[in-house]
Amino acid sequence: MAVSRLFKSFAGTSEADSPPGSVAVIRPQDSARRLEVLDDFEHAGIGWLWATDDEARLIYISENAAEKLNQPIDLLLGQPLITLFETDASHPGERSDRPLNFQLTARNKILDQTVRFALAPTQGDGRQTWWSISGHPKFDKAGKFQGYRGSAKDITVEYERKLVDSRLAEFDSLTGLANRHRMDKKLEGILAAYKAAKRSCTLIMLDLDRFKHVNDTLGHPAGDELLRQVSRRLERVVGSRGEIGRLGGDEFQIILPDLDDRGKLGELSNKLIQIISQPYTIDDKRATIGTSVGIAISPYDGIDKLDLVDNADLALYAAKNGGRGQFRFYSADLKDEAAERSLLEQGLREALANEALELHYQPVVRIADNMVVTFEALMRWNHPERGFISPAVFVPIAEDSDLINQIGAWALNRACADAMAWPKSVRVAVNVSAAQFAHSDLIDTVTHALETSGLEPGRLELELTESVFMGDGETIDDIFRALKVLGVRLALDDFGTGYSSLSYLRSAPFDKIKVDRTFVDSCTQKDQNSAKIIAAIIGLSEALGMETTVEGVEAFDQLEVVRGMNARFIQGWIYSKALTQETVLKRMESGDLRIEPDGPERHRPERRSVFRRIGVIHDDHRYDALMRNLSKTGALIDGLLGVPEGTGLVLDLSGGQLAICTVTRVQDAMIAVEFETPLVSDGAGGLCTRHRVSPYVLASVGAHEGDGPKSKPRFIQVAAVTTHGALEFAD
Fold first, then answer.
1. How far, in Å, CA of 672 to CA of 649, rounded?
2. What is the pLDDT of residue 186?
3. How many Cα atoms sit within 13 Å of 374 on the Cβ side?
4. 302, part of any domain
């Protein structure tokens, strides 16, 4: 019903009463004409009127408003206002972040409050309707609340435009993820709030390995599609635990509030690496990339945005330089990896020019008679100042520069030449990187190495990983055909770590599969399926008429497991580490290529020798000691006398890392301890505690240090000596 019909009984003077030629003004007492103006206002669609009773139920709404909402007016009247309209504070345009129900209950004045019609989409195309409403509470002369009187207008078009503009300002147009601006704002807000509450927040930085190669080989549209697919995979892994952003290019960032468990973060990082490394299908072509992950945790690694981002970046650089496909936690001893990388690249160029690189050869042994059948060529770089540098460090640097093809060609030529001095029954295996495989000169390089050395093609084995399948499928097939025409053998390395290996075996002419050592590391553990996976790979290989080599066998218990799975060829330290050509030739002088296995009876994963100063805390005393050995479950400590078995201690491993432990064995000043909570991987081949003591707690403890009397020390601190008898601790 119109406003004028509600108030007709209050009609006063009319326009006809005005003298001719005069202005027909509408005065406050002219109720009829005032109501007519309001009636015209409602029907014009400029805005509408509404009113509620004292229980916030709608008792009046303009007819034109009901028509706009595509709802019968009788359906709207009598309904609580909060069931018809709701605020959405997550979007722009809000004058208040408090819900409409709070405003009405508090009887606050409402000014330009953006609300959404809540019953159902009312636009013809299913879109939502957005209104701006204003209202004020009405009280009678006695001060009794009578309800709200207000106005409203449709702002759907303008509001949706604001939503689009806001999304463009805060979200990446390619992937739909948050952009750098939004991630910066969110991280700043979280850190500011969490600093006061002494809460933690983790920042993960990722970038994609070999993404540039996808752009170069498949084109930028394919690169864009790859980024979209990577984004969807990140969302599936992270879920609702945090916010994901694309900072630009192939750089991504993840914010994880209230998570500082480095065990869980390591598991999450490994899952991110595995999922992102699965092959992608783009326009019927296949692409394979990887990722590296850097992790910094507030407040341990920084309490403001700039420090945390810088430290996560440093951890990311360390992960990339450590061999890619890895994660790293930030630690205070990380160097400026960009400068370090530049120095290593220059040193690598000089080493190549000065022939300072070496090839060492690790034997592949036939398990039936322990005879050597192949030597794998492994590159070594003995830096004049830094000593031996791992290939996991310098090969990625070579791949990112123009050095990989030169180094690869050098390795092929040297390996073929060295193999000519071996018996003809022994093959040589040479690793070929994805970048080298895709280079147009590969066939010429292999041909030159064979012709120059005189090596028979069947004695050369090229080891490839699944990453060589990235790029144009027809080109890849052409390279495989050309290599087989040459007569060389092909081996698929690191088998089982990818996600579409079966399709590779179907499409590529491999002669051998190499089972990745990660399965061997855990094949003796009852709660793992690694032994079954090894057996399945061996069975598959035999069914396809291929050989299988099991890598990374170090102990007799592992050897027995893989022998029981019908493995025929083994490569690992139980037979030999990589040898120089000189050593290989000396062993061959006798004409006997048999190597007897020699190693520990039992594989002890994650156990490593260390020489590191730590603190040992007992009661209210701290002692300095030397940690000599470390595993996930225990450590060997040197430098304390008089410590009984069963004593509870706390090891201060620095950086807020406190490990609660119990003494299990004692020998003079050497004690073995077992941790209450096992350590976790730090991503760099080391171990760390799951949790750290917050800097806020350390500061609080430091402020009260020295308060109160101390007990007498119970143990004697002595200088650690360089040698001791063996002392075991539980794994």
1. 11
2. 93
3. 28
4. yes
